[in-house]
Structure of NAD(P)H dehydrogenase:
Amino acid sequence: MKALVLSSSPRRNGNSALLAKACAEGLAEAGHEAEFVHADDVLAGFLRDCRQCRKPDGECAIEDGFRDAFFESYLPAEGFIAATPIYWYGSSAQLKAFFDRTFCYYAASYPNSAPVIDGMIGKRVGLLVSSEETFPMVSGAVICQFQEYCRYTRSTFVGVVHGYGNARGDVARDPNDPLKAARRFGREFFTRHATDYQIDTERPGRVWG
Ligand SMILES: Cc1cc2nc3c(=O)[nH]c(=O)nc-3n(C[C@H](O)[C@H](O)[C@H](O)COP(=O)(O)O)c2cc1C
């Protein structure tokens, strides 16, 4: 299996990047292909008004690496794991921009949007977050966003690893050892038990065994 691990903090050696690297290592240990991408390396701008901005052939006119990252890394992957610091109780602007920019290619105004939509459906999705504050809802908004993203794209939300830290590398000192958890999350990413039932979903009475 292939997974894209998108690290979305501007601090390349920061806490969420450490979680992302640990997760990518875990994926590789389990025999999966893990591609690690820094959002800052592929995004040079926010989504614009596509009606004004789109090139005559339908392509996005923003000259950066997003198209390659989206078509070569994101769409072919069976798994997508995003790492973000908590910024103002939400994700980094980079991660939000990555999601927003997909619009240019799944919108009906893109000449070949149907295979793009197909490629966005049905991934396994994971979230890695780092924050200074420890109260549970500090990551609530981002978790809600991912839950809705997974519902909308008929994807499976595999889970969240949250590390607490502020200075670069602080998460390595978090007594909960989120780097170990992120590595394990990567190892188990494609096999981990993940459910989101409807009331009439047929299921066994026990979760395990
Ligand atoms: C612009 C900005 C906003 C932040 N907002 C929050 C916040 O709302 N809650 C929080 O717990 N930490 C907040 N932080 C702290 C970061 O989440 C924390 O330092 C995190 O570990 C940074 O991750 P990084 O090293 O991957 O960049 C903020 C930091 C910055 C720079």
Remarks:
- Residues 2-188 form a domain with the Rossmann fold fold (CATH 3.40.50.360).
- Strands lie at 2-7, 33-38, 79-85, 124-131, 156-164.
- The longest helix spans residues 15-29.
